[in-house]
Amino acid sequence: MAKRSSLYIRIVEGKNLPAKDITGSSDPYCIVKVDNEPIIRTATVWKTLCPFWGEEYQVHLPPTFHTVAFYVMDEDALSRDDVIGKVCLPRDTLASHPKGFSGWTHLTEVDPDEEVQGEIHLRLEVQPGARACRLRCSVLEARDLAPKDRNGASDPFVRVRYKGRTQETSIVKKSCYPRWNETFEFELEEGATEVLCVETWDWDLVSRNDFLGKVVIDIQRLQVAQPEESWFRLQPDQTKSRRHDEGNLGSLQLEVRLRDEMVLPSSCYQPLVQLLCHEVKLGMQGPGQLISLIEETTSTECRQDVATNLLKLFLGQGLAKDFLDLLFQLELSRTSETNTLFRSNSLASKSMESFLKVAGMQYLHGVLGPIINKVFEEKKYVELDPSKVEVKDVGCSGLHRPQTEAEVLEQSAQTLRAHLGALLSALSRSVRACPAVVRATFRQLFRRVRERFPGAQHENVPFIAVTSFLCLRFFSPAIMSPKLFHLRERHADARTSRTLLLLAKAVQNVGNMDTPASRAKEAWMEPLQPTVRQGVAQLKDFITKLVDIEEKDELDLQRTLSLQAPPVKEGPLFIHRTKGKGPLMSSSFKKLYFFLTTEALSFAKTPSSKCVNELNQWLSALRKVSINNTGLLGSYHPGVFRGDKWSCCHQKEKTGQGCDKTRSRVTLQEWNDPLDHDLEAQLIYRHLLGVEAMLWERHRELSRGAEAGTVPASPGEAPKDSLAQLLRVLQDLREAHSSSPAGSPPSEPNCLLELQT
């Protein structure tokens, strides 16, 4: 049994930020820290005081974390980035509102005395004496202290205070991992109620010393002759009065939700998993159709989460294709109009979206990556709507005259035709690159739609069904928001965003098979019609080849892919090399392209992918592939061994124990993460528990119908039996949670905490 904590974070936008640049504007971005460890950095939005990010993240983190902090920064090219303000959410606050935070909150000033981090190692002992007891405090070491000096380190010392008496340790120069091993003694009076205060400071020769954190210890809880030794988390100095500057630094709109799950052993979830898998294997022939019942009882707001959890569960059981095929049949059985097929946010549509992101993200990068990169590199002004053309945006130089509106429209059409043609050509060549399980799923979709809508008048319907997912719900969103699909590191500027939007519209027109309705919607897209018509023929040919995969070919392709270790991360990293010594030493950066799989970390001098990865994404990926490493060290040295000592803690033994603990628990969720079957089963159980009352009501309706003879009895079990089994499984899981040390899981809350200005 294990407790799993995850944090859903959506950084929406900011407003009324202060101007940090001489131009009267700012270049804001956000950094998210968990217990002072940076885990997320948003894109920079240039030259604005009201930035929009709209970035979502899922973070897995240890249940013992303390705070989540959001820092709004102003990026500067020539100097250190400015801190605008922050929002800090303690874990206790998040846990008391499981529905999460949503809304605007004021940014507060970043006080250096509150920006503390790290831990200090102390040994405390009360020794008996002839006249009075003596308090012995041994200051052993500290780790992960905040760097306060320009050299990226600090010069820490410790100040121990008790009853007005103060003693200090020696100063350790240039280290965030100092070791002191110094002991101080104080005389204790009987019944003393004072506290022992241990403060850590950064020594400065010229300016005042910087505060690094403190620990306050209640002496009364210490027992005579029983020493206590432990690591203590450094706390900020909250004795100073806070400045009332709320509202002066602007506001930040956030959505934050903490989820704690107590995951039981795998054996506890087997009845639930087996029951759901049995329903999927039976398909439309099943007596109870639990999948259909789950869809009926799932609200719109949580349908995406339920679809993702179910998909990952069946993906781990090798039944993803069968699960999606069942959803296709269920939706087709209640659809009579072809123009509404798979256009709603049904369980089938949401599950297919999740499936394409889980199984097809690498394929998407291979097809779209080069085209998206070219659009970003060219930065051309593109516009087809005459009402939005601004000739001044095109610019002119020297004696060249400005372009006319007609010339701008024609040049824009040529640019878009080139991008659309390149994309369709890349798509046509990508049949063999498409994952076998994706091809097999599209084959089932194509066949089911053709069986449901036969006849020459519905010839295009199976093709449109495939493109409704491939083009409208996968490729088009990735084109419009490449950063959210990890195709680019930064958001596009206004000019590039418009080009991407027009390209996405053209792809949608091709995906709709150039229907009259799509042409009539935006008549100014007419200059692209020749390329769109040609693209429709290319797309139909591509889909015909894509779904032409037999069971044997599917198994052979899966077997071939299973022999290759799946990539977890790939992209460039800069290796810093320092040459020479002294103040005039020269530095250089060497760019290497790394490729991380679940088996190895390799690198080359040339790129295999142009996707740029942030440092925290690499750290997260390395932690994921090391999670099952039985030889993972508990500590490490964050510095280098230079000369005769480590640069971080000044320890002289090269093979000695590390001075910092290994952080292996905070990871960013990605679509290619390894499946966690027990967690997915727990999340499905949690959802079913929330709709249990509706399931019981449905069970009673089926029971009354069977007694009245209105529900036809099947040759096997009655329709209500599978639902009755599900209700029994839920009861067993509830009892398993109740008997666990952590107790039963909390019921779903009904309130959402609003953050208001």
UniProtKB/TrEMBL annotation:
<dbReference type="GO" id="GO:0005096">
    <property type="term" value="F:GTPase activator activity"/>
</dbReference>
<feature type="domain" description="C2">
    <location>
        <begin position="116"/>
        <end position="232"/>
    </location>
</feature>
<dbReference type="InterPro" id="IPR035892">
    <property type="entry name" value="C2_domain_sf"/>
</dbReference>
<dbReference type="GO" id="GO:0008270">
    <property type="term" value="F:zinc ion binding"/>
</dbReference>
<dbReference type="Pfam" id="PF00616">
    <property type="entry name" value="RasGAP"/>
</dbReference>
<dbReference type="InterPro" id="IPR001936">
    <property type="entry name" value="RasGAP_dom"/>
</dbReference>
<dbReference type="InterPro" id="IPR023152">
    <property type="entry name" value="RasGAP_CS"/>
</dbReference>
<feature type="domain" description="Ras-GAP">
    <location>
        <begin position="302"/>
        <end position="512"/>
    </location>
</feature>
<dbReference type="Pfam" id="PF00779">
    <property type="entry name" value="BTK"/>
</dbReference>
<dbReference type="InterPro" id="IPR008936">
    <property type="entry name" value="Rho_GTPase_activation_prot"/>
</dbReference>
<dbReference type="InterPro" id="IPR000008">
    <property type="entry name" value="C2_dom"/>
</dbReference>
<dbReference type="InterPro" id="IPR011993">
    <property type="entry name" value="PH-like_dom_sf"/>
</dbReference>
<keyword id="KW-0343">GTPase activation</keyword>
<protein>
    <submittedName>
        <fullName>RAS p21 protein activator 4B</fullName>
    </submittedName>
</protein>
<dbReference type="GO" id="GO:0035556">
    <property type="term" value="P:intracellular signal transduction"/>
</dbReference>
<feature type="region of interest" description="Disordered">
    <location>
        <begin position="734"/>
        <end position="757"/>
    </location>
</feature>
<keyword id="KW-0862">Zinc</keyword>
<dbReference type="InterPro" id="IPR039360">
    <property type="entry name" value="Ras_GTPase"/>
</dbReference>
<dbReference type="InterPro" id="IPR001562">
    <property type="entry name" value="Znf_Btk_motif"/>
</dbReference>
<keyword id="KW-0677">Repeat</keyword>
<keyword id="KW-0479">Metal-binding</keyword>
<dbReference type="Pfam" id="PF00168">
    <property type="entry name" value="C2"/>
</dbReference>
<keyword id="KW-0863">Zinc-finger</keyword>
<feature type="domain" description="C2">
    <location>
        <begin position="1"/>
        <end position="105"/>
    </location>
</feature>
